[in-house]
Amino acid sequence: TPDIRPLVAGNWKMNGTRASFDQIKAMAEGVKGDLSSKVETLICPPATLLYVATALCDDSPLMIGAQDCHQKQSGAHTGEVSAEMIADCFGTHVIVGHSERRTDHAEHDGLVRAKTDAAHAAELVAIVCIGETGDERQVGKTLDVLKRQLAESLPDSATAENTVIAYEPVWAIGTGLTPTTADVEEAHAFMRQELVSRFGGAGGKMRILYGGSVKPSNARELMGVANVDGALIGGASLKAEDFLAIYRAY
Ligand code: PEP
Fold it and tell me: Is residue 2 part of a domain?
């Protein structure tokens, strides 16, 4: 979208140990330069690596975020991480509502909205994931699902600065399958229209990322589709070489 600075974001999921700091360092080095003024970059490693990762990116435009947050600020929620804790470790973004969270932890739109609110309260950018399952696509429900997820996962306080949408067809995640560019274009145009009708000018500027089996070989084509303002990348974000190749597709 003209006037929108694209975001290339990586989601490491439950992958990565201290040995992976070498990859973060290589990414931090690789995104220094002219292109970084046009394209933002972000890696979301597991929470165990967050604090050291942000320190490694001190003098790089590469930003570091988390993959989930709890909806509350603190308290008796064993095993959880709050948005404040992410901000305290200098994380700038948090992914919420990823389909793996929706499936593995039964996260519904209302909870995703509460997590988005929590992210905003901690001054984090929320990357709100939505997308249809294979079954929903088969029966022609894709746009209905996107409409509902957008309406119910986003709080009224969402702005182009504090919120990024990630469209991730569930059947395209980790499968090597991608929708056709025509299908991506249709979905993104629909989401843009929904965002503009609810948020006005802010909806026109909100980034809408595509995610699902993005790799160096298909990045240029997918990122060239109208209303695609960047990518959320799983598998291909683990290695600096692949992540940087996707970044350079811009
Ligand atoms: C993801 O987990 O957000 C994702 C898009 O995964 P992959 O790129 O591996 O399909």
Answer: no
Active-site residue flag, 108:
no
- How many domains is the chain partitioned into structurally? 1
For the CA of 172, the closest atom of ligand 1 is 10
* Distance from C-alpha of 178 to C-alpha of 150, rounded to nearest angstrom: 21
Mean pLDDT of 66-80: 98
Containing domain of residue 226, as a range? 7-247
Q: What is the CATH number of the domain that holds 18?
A: 3.20.20.70
Q: Is there a domain that residue 146 lies in?
A: yes
Which residues make Cβ contacts (< 8 Å) with residue 141, sequence separation at least 6?
Answer: 132
**Active-site residue among 40, 70, 84, 98?**
98
Active site residue: 132, 168, 188, 194, which one? Answer: 168
**Residue in 166, 157, 147, 156 with CA at minimum distance from that of residue 65:** 166
pLDDT score at 199: 98
Question: Is 190 within a domain?
Answer: yes
**Ligand 1, residues 99, 178, 213: which to mutate, most atoms within 8 A of Cβ?**
213
Concerning whether 98 is annotated as a catalytic residue, the answer is yes
The pTM of the whole model exceeds 0.90 = yes
Look up the ipTM and state it. 0.97
20 has binding-site annotation: no
